[in-house]
Specification:
Elements lengths: L5 H58 L4 H32 L8 E4 H18 L3 E5 L7 E4 L1 H17 L6 E9 L2 E8 L20 H5 L8 H11 L4 E6 L3 E10 L14
Parallel strand pairs: 2-4
Antiparallel strand pairs: 1-3, 3-7, 4-5, 5-7, 6-7
Helix pairs in contact: 1-2, 2-6, 3-4, 4-6
The structure holds adenosine-5'-diphosphate.
Adenosine-5'-diphosphate binds next to helix 4 and helix 6.
Protein name: histidine kinase
Keywords: Kinase, Membrane, Phosphoprotein, Transferase, Transmembrane, Transmembrane helix, Two-component regulatory system
Organism: Mucilaginibacter yixingensis
C-alpha cells in the first residue's frame, strides 16, 4: 500500500507508541502504589497485636505475679493476639500463593449440595458456640453437579459462613441457598447480623479492609478472608457479589459452572 502522506503516518505511529508507553507507565505506577500500600498495611496489621502482646507481658512483669488472676487474664489476652498473628500469616501466605499462581485450580465434578452439607458438619460446633442456627435452603430435588476446585470452594464457603458467625447476632440464623441459573448455580450465604453500611460495600473485597464496626467489635480477623474468596471465585471465571443492609444482615452470593448434561434427542415412537 502506498500512503498518500508518509510523514503523517510516521507522526501517527509515534503518537500511538507514546500513548501505549503512557498506559504501561501508568500501570507500573499503579502497581507500585498498590505494593507500597500493601506493605504499609501488613506492617500496621502486625503492629497492633504485637504491641498488645508486649503490653500484656510488661503488665505481668510489673505486677510480679502477685495478682495471679489478673496475670492469667493477661496471658489469655496475649495468647489471643498470638492467634491473630498466626491467622494473619496463614492468610498472607495463602493470598500470595494464590496471586502468584502457585496454587493452580484443580477442576473436578462434584455435587454442590454434598459439599454444603460437609461444610455444615465441620462448622456445627462453631455455630453452636455462637448460638447461630445454620440452615440449608434447598428448593430443588436434584443435586447440582458443578465443575470447580472442590477444596477451594470449600474454603470459600467456610470463609463466608465463618464471617456470618463473627458478624452475626447471637441467636441468629445463617442460611445457605442454591439457585439454578441455567448454565450456572448461584450459592448465597445470608445472615441476620450487623450488616454493612452502603459506602463500605465497594471496598469490602480489598485486602485488609475491615469496617469500623468490625474493628470496634474486637473480633479477630485478618481482613484477608474476602480477598481470598474473591480471588478463588475469579480464578474460576465466576462472579461474587454482596448486598447488605446495616443493622439487618448481609448476603454474599457466588456462581459456579454447572456440568452440562448431555441432552439426548428424543427417540420418536414408531406406531405400528
Ligand atoms: P475479617 O473478617 O478477617 O476482618 P474479611 O476479609 O473476611 O476479613 O472481611 C472484611 C470485612 O468485611 C470484615 O472485617 C467486616 O467488616 C466485613 N464483613 C465481612 N463479612 C461480613 C458479614 N457477614 N457481615 C458484616 N460485615 C462483614
Amino acid at each position: 500500500i502506498v500512503s498518500a502522506d508518509p510523514i503523517k503516518d510516521v507522526q501517527q505511529e509515534v503518537k500511538e507508541w507514546a500513548s501505549q508507553k503512557k498506559i504501561e507507565i501508568d500501570e507500573l505506577r499503579k502497581q507500585e502504589k498498590f505494593r507500597r500500600e500493601f506493605l504499609s498495611n501488613i506492617s500496621h496489621e502486625f503492629k497492633t497485636p504485637l504491641f498488645a502482646i508486649q503490653g500484656y507481658i510488661e503488665a505481668i512483669q510489673d505486677d510480679n505475679f502477685e495478682d495471679t488472676d489478673m496475670a492469667a487474664q493477661f496471658l489469655e489476652k496475649a495468647s489471643k493476639n498470638v492467634d491473630r498473628l498466626s491467622y494473619l500469616i496463614k492468610d498472607l501466605d495463602e493470598i500470595s500463593k494464590l496471586e502468584s499462581g502457585e496454587i493452580p485450580i484443580n477442576y473436578s465434578k462434584f455435587k454442590v449440595n454434598d459439599l454444603i452439607k460437609e461444610v455444615f458438619e465441620s462448622l456445627e460446633l462453631k455455630a453452636n458456640q455462637h448460638s447461630i442456627r445454620l440452615i440449608f435452603k434447598q428448593k430443588y430435588d436434584e443435586p447440582f453437579l458443578v465443575t470447580a476446585d472442590r477444596e477451594k470452594i470449600r474454603q470459600v464457603l467456610v470463609n463466608l459462613i465463618d464471617n456470618s458467625f463473627k458478624y452475626g447476632k447471637e441467636g441468629g440464623t445463617t442460611s445457605v441457598s442454591v439457585f439454578d441459573l441455567h448454565d450456572q448455580v448461584l450459592i448465597e450465604v445470608t445472615d441476620d447480623g450487623i450488616g454493612i453500611e452502603e459506602h463500605n460495600l465497594p471496598r469490602l473485597f480489598e485486602r485488609f479492609f475491615r469496617t469500623d464496626q468490625s474493628r470496634s467489635r474486637q473480633i479477630g480477623g485478618s481482613g484477608l478472608g474476602l480477598a481470598i474468596v474473591k480471588h478463588i471465585i475469579e480464578a474460576h471465571q465466576q462472579t461474587i457479589n454482596v448486598r447488605s443492609t446495616a443493622g439487618l444482615g448481609s448476603t454474599f452470593g457466588f456462581t459456579l459452572q454447572k456440568v452440562k448434561q448431555i441432552q439426548f434427542p428424543a427417540i420418536p415412537v414408531l406406531k405400528s
